[in-house]
Specification:
It is a single chain. This protein is of the alpha/beta class and 293 residues long. It contains eleven helices and eight strands. It has an eight-stranded parallel β-barrel, surrounded by five helices. Strand 3, helix 5 and strand 4 form a beta-alpha-beta unit. Helix 2 packs across helix 4 and helix 4 packs parallel to helix 5. The longest helix is centred in the last third of the chain and has 17 residues. 39% of the residues are buried. The chain binds 3-methyl-2-oxobutanoic acid.
Length: 293
C-alpha cells in the first residue's frame, strides 16, 4: 500500500538542506489570512511567542501560555500549505526537563499539525534538543538575544558587542547544532559574530537583527508591515499598514456619522411587488420610566 500526502509542504530537512544556498525567507505569522499571503513568499512561517506582545498586549513573551500557541499554530497551519510551520515553545514549557519538553512539544505537534518547534537557549538546552530530535520532533534553536530571558538579561539587549562574549555564544550555536537542531535563529547579534557562527556550523542560521551573511532572515510580520507602534532598530518597515488601517477606519467612522454608509449597494431590497405589501411603519414610543422606590 502506498500513502500519498495531499500536499507537499517544506519540511525541516528541506530547510536544513539550504545551508549556504539561496537565502531562506521567513516571517512570523499568527493567523490564517496573513499565513495564506506569506505562504506564497516564505520558506517557513514561525508562530512566534512574540504574538503575546504583538497581538495580546503583554510586555514580554514570558506570560504566553501553551494553549495560546496551539490555537494560533492551528490557524497558521490551516491558512498555509507550502511553507514549513514552526511553533515556538513558550516560557516554562520545556526548560525543566527533556521529558517535560517532549510532552509539551508532542502536544504542539499533534494539536497543530506543525512541522517543527522552536525553543530558546544554547548550551543549557542542547540535551533537550537531542532528546526531542531523537524522538521525532524537529527543533529550531534560538540563541543570542533570547526574549524569554528578558528578566535575567535586564532588557532586550544586543548580544556579542564585545569580543570576550563571543566564545560562549559560538559554543551555544555549536552545541545546539551538534545536538540535532535543523536551524538556529540568531537574534540581535553583532554582524561579525553572526557571520563567524554561520561559517562555523553545518545547519542554516536564520538572522533577526544579525547579519545579511546569515543563511536566512526572519522578521516579525507586524513589525515589517508597519503595524507595530514601536520596533527594534533592526526592523525595516516594508509597508505602512498601520497608517492604512487608521485611514480606512477613520473614513468608515466619518461615513457612518454622515449616514453615507451603508449606501444602496450595501443594503438589501425587497422582492419586486413586495413594496406595496409593507405594513405601515410603527411609531417608536418612549418606554415609560419605572417609578423608583
Ligand atoms: O517569537 C518570535 O517572533 C521569534 C522571532 C523573533 C524569531 O522568536
Amino acid at each position: 500500500m502506498s500513502i500519498h500526502f495531499k500536499r507537499r509542504r517544506l519540511m525541516a530537512p528541506d530547510i536544513a538542506a539550504r545551508k549556504g544556498g539561496e537565502p531562506i525567507v521567513a516571517l512570523t505569522s499568527y493567523h490564517a489570512h496573513t499565513a495564506a499571503i506569506a505562504d506564497n513568499h516564505c520558506d517557513f512561517l514561525l508562530v512566534g511567542d512574540s504574538l503575546g506582545m504583538v497581538m495580546h498586549g503583554y510586555e514580554s513573551t514570558v506570560p504566553v501560555p501553551l494553549d495560546l500557541m496551539i490555537m494560533h499554530g492551528r490557524a497558521v497551519v490551516r491558512g498555509s500549505n507550502k511553507a514549513l510551520v514552526v511553533v515556538d515553545m513558550p516560557f516554562g514549557t520545556y526548560e525543566e526537563s527533556p521529558p517535560i519538553a517532549f510532552r509539551n512539544a508532542a502536544r504542539v505537534m499533534k494539536e497543530t499539525d506543525c512541522g517543527a518547534v522552536k525553543l530558546e537557549g544554547g548550551r543549557r538546552m542542547a540535551e533537550t534538543v537531542r532528546y526531542l530530535v531523537d524522538r521525532g520532533i524537529p527543533v529550531m534553536a534560538h540563541i543570542g538575544l533570547t526574549p524569554q530571558s528578558v528578566n535575567v538579561l535586564g532588557g532586550f539587549k544586543t548580544q556579542g558587542r564585545t569580543v570576550d562574549q563571543w566564545h560562549a555564544i559560538e559554543e551555544d550555536a555549536r552545541l545546539v547544532a551538534e545536538a540535532g537542531a535543523f536551524a538556529v535563529v540568531l537574534e540581535a547579534l553583532t554582524a561579525p559574530l553572526a557571520e563567524r557562527i554561520t561559517k562555523a556550523i553545518p545547519v542554516p542560521t536564520i538572522g533577526i537583527g544579525a547579519s545579511p551573511g546569515c543563511d536566512g532572515q526572519i522578521l516579525v510580520m507586524e513589525d515589517m508591515l508597519g503595524l507595530s507602534p514601536s520596533v527594534p532598530k533592526f526592523v525595516k518597515k516594508f509597508g505602512a499598514i498601520g497608517a492604512a488601517i487608521d485611514r480606512a477606519i477613520g473614513a468608515y467612522a466619518d461615513e457612518v456619522r454622515a449616514r453615507t454608509f451603508p449606501g444602496p449597494e450595501h443594503t438589501y431590497s425587497l422582492k419586486t411587488d413586495e413594496a406595496e405589501r409593507q405594513p405601515s411603519p410603527q411609531r417608536a414610543t418612549k418606554k415609560p420610566k419605572t417609578p423608583s422606590t
